[in-house]
TrEMBL record:
Skewed-composition ranges (Low complexity): 268-292
Organism: Croceicoccus mobilis
Organism superkingdom: Bacteria
Protein name per Swiss-Prot or TrEMBL: Transglutaminase
Region (Disordered): 265-292
InterPro entries registered for this protein in UniProt: Bac_transglu_N, Papain-like_cys_pep_sf, Transglutaminase-like
Alphabetical list of PANTHER family matching this protein: BLR5614 PROTEIN-RELATED, SLL1049 PROTEIN
Residue stretches making up the Transglutaminase-like domain: 159-223
Length: 292
């Protein structure tokens, strides 16, 4: 599938900004299941300072806000070809060892509720994959998807205790319990094209866990599915803090409003799929001619 993305974030300030830096994880990479055809970034009221790959191998852009501005706009758009690999990303790669993703963070650390749920599941040593699918179902059963009940600082244990949360909370609970069971797990931020619509509410979050013989496998707990061709991976990390689309520091210019516009559109078959279909059609045509 060929997906076209347009993501626009606008900040307005009551007072002029004195100084501000923002770290952006908004640029996807070509990896298993996706190929970036083109990707462009534009800024109004800010300029790029640095472009690098961080310790999680995420493409990271550091921008500085222009002093005195009352408005900052960050826009990215591009085209990504995707394929359905049943959520399988494959072998471990990057700067960090696999065991790094066994360590908990403040946001994923299990408390009594998470430990009790982990004990109910127990790890199936014969099939880690079955354990993870059961975990995915259990988290969604215990936590209703509901907006407005949590924020970026909500801990997994607190969200599970409340029984409410969004995709970020589902991912954190899943990750924390998977690690508690001895399974490496990480957080993923990216885009999901919801069926029957182009305009999306926000960027999406899910989890990946490491399975022997398969490698990293994705689990979208909120939608109870392994990511397919409707998903675009952008950044990964031990939790939301490491993979967040935009984070930063600011001096002066108290934020007055934040608006986000996101569109993800299906542009049809990817180039490789089209070439494959054309090749098959040409072969059938040649066969028909030779038989005639």
């Amino acid at each position: 599938m060929r997906l076209a993305v347009h993501h626009r974030t606008k900040y307005t300030f009551r007072e002029p900004v004195v100084h501000a830096l923002q770290r952006l994880h908004l640029t996807p990479k070509s990896t298993s299941g996706q190929t970036v055809v083109e990707w462009n970034m534009r800024y109004t009221g800010a300029h790029e300072e640095l472009h690098y790959d961080d310790h999680n191998m995420n493409t990271t852009v550091l921008i500085a806000v222009d002093p005195g501005v009352h408005e900052v706009v960050i826009e990215c758009e591009g085209i990504v070809d995707t394929a359905d690999n049943a959520g399988v990303i494959g072998r471990h790669a990057g700067h960090l060892p696999r065991w790094h993703f066994l360590s908990q963070t403040k946001l994923t650390k299990p408390g009594p509720k998470m430990k009790a749920l982990a004990q109910q599941l127990a790890r199936n040593e014969d099939s880690t994959l079955d354990t993870l699918h059961s975990l995915c179902s259990a988290v969604l059963e215990e936590m209703e998807y509901q907006t407005g009940e949590t924020d970026a600082e909500t801990r997994a244990e607190d969200a599970l205790a409340a029984g409410k949360g969004v995709c970020q909370d589902h991912a954190h609970v899943f990750i924390g319990i998977a690690r508690h069971l001895g399974i490496p797990a990480r957080y993923v931020s990216g885009y999901l094209m919801m069926d029957e619509r182009v305009e999306q509410e926000a960027s999406h979050a899910w989890a990946e866990a490491y399975v022997d013989d398969l490698g990293w496998v994705g689990f979208d707990i909120s939608n109870k599915i392994c990511p397919d061709e409707r998903y675009i991976r952008v950044a990964t990390g031990r939790d939301y803090g490491e993979a967040a689309p935009i984070t930063g520091i600011q001096l002066g210019g108290m934020s007055d409003s934040l608006t986000v516009e996101l569109a993800v559109e299906n542009r049809g078959a990817s180039q490789s799929q089209s070439q494959g279909a054309n090749g098959q059609a040409q072969a059938q045509s040649q066969q028909s001619q030779s038989q005639g």
